[in-house]
Amino acid sequence: MAVTRETETRTVLNSSSPQQGRSIASSGQAASSRADGEGQSELSDDSSDRPRLIVTIDTEEEGLWGGRYRMTGNTVENIRGVPRFQSLCDQLGIRPVYLVDAPVVQDDRASAILGEIHAAGGCEIGTHVHPWCNPPIDEVADQRESYLCNLPESLQRAKIEWLTEAISERFGKRPVSFRAGRYGLDITGARVLAELGYRVDSSVIPFTDYSADRGPDFGNAPWQPYWVGGEDLCCAAASGKLLEVPVSVGFNRSSFSRAMRCQSLLGKAPFRWLRLEGILDRSQVLKRIKLSPEQATARDMKTLIDRYCESPSAVLVMMFHSSSLVPGESPYVGDESELEEFLGRIAETCRYFLESKAGVSRTLEDVAVERKAFRLAAARV
């Protein structure tokens, strides 16, 4: 993933009638649960409505921020920054999810670092497919095929199967959580995941359209967990084997659907010529926020937490890249002082969630297990 993978290719949905599923997709809610963001779920995943926070790290090779997709010769020196971050998580009582890709699994030192943490019960290990460097490599590493969803189903399956087996062998446990590199998942890949025994995916980025870069369009996806089924990854189903837990994206306004409609309008002429979208963003009048210390301040992330927690049983997913844990390996962390600030943003945001919102830490697998148990209990009522 290069800078272009998010900062340059991201396009907020331009739609006159967006539909966002604030409600938690559960039995009886089918496709209607991608409905307008003002709706709230009447269901809770257990006896408590306490919000959940999942901290996820795309754990991968360095050197991706310039838009280069190397099939071989990748290095994973950035993994040496994981223990310092893990120590912070231990202090906070958080079990992070390391979504690891092929170069990490193929590297003995990187795998040893993660394996020690995993063996001690300190984290979850999930799968992160970068198509360009994930065997089998039968395609040319170009912009289009850097998205898993643009590959034939047979090749998607082969790559996921290879990495699944490699992770199982390295860490002694078959992974059940997944995120596609560059968020490049579609319904075809989701079906493959379910068939291979995966319980949960976290590739969806709500309010975001990558189609201009030949990637997926998540503009109409719900922003709270939902079951995947039917013909559309972005449409919640009443039942399914795979739970989608989107990366947390929203706005600094309570009504995400209205905020999205407004931002969509500002992106069109004549408002686009006046650059009103950027002006409103910088002035905090209307701001899109992603729960990532790479792209948001602690203040903004806490604002997003506030908005999410206006719904019962909210699930928030923080994400960033492992290359940001070592100075100079990502554009977000240039030196040691910036790394201190980066880790400080994570700590401040997580403490706010755990203390001010009485939230709890979970992994992707934890939430999938909770939601399945709740669904089964609801079916017996």
Descriptive overview:
There is one protein chain. By secondary structure, this protein is of the alpha/beta class. It has one domain (3-337, 354-380): Alpha-Beta Barrel (TIM Barrel). The protein has helices spanning 82-92, 102-106, 108-119, 153-171, 187-195, 256-266, 271-274, 276-282, 298-308, 336-356, 364-380, and strands spanning 52-59, 97-100, 124-129, 177-180, 200-201, 226-228, 236-237, 242-244, 249-251, 288-290, 315-321, 360-361. The strands form two sheets. Strands 1, 2, 3, 4, 5, 6, 7, 8, 11 and 12 form a ten-stranded mixed beta sheet that branches. A two-stranded antiparallel ribbon has the order 9-10. α4 crosses α5 (187-195). The chain is globular, with a radius of gyration of 19 Å. Residues 1-47 have low confidence and may be disordered.
Q: Specify the CATH class.
A: Alpha Beta
Amino-to-carboxy terminus distance: 46 Å
Question: What is the share of helical residues?
Answer: 25-40%
> What would CATH call the homologous superfamily?
Glycoside hydrolase/deacetylase
Uncertain ranges:
1-47
The number of helices is 11
The CATH architecture designation is Alpha-Beta Barrel
Write down the secondary-structure element order.
EHEHHEHEHEEEEEHHHEHEHEH
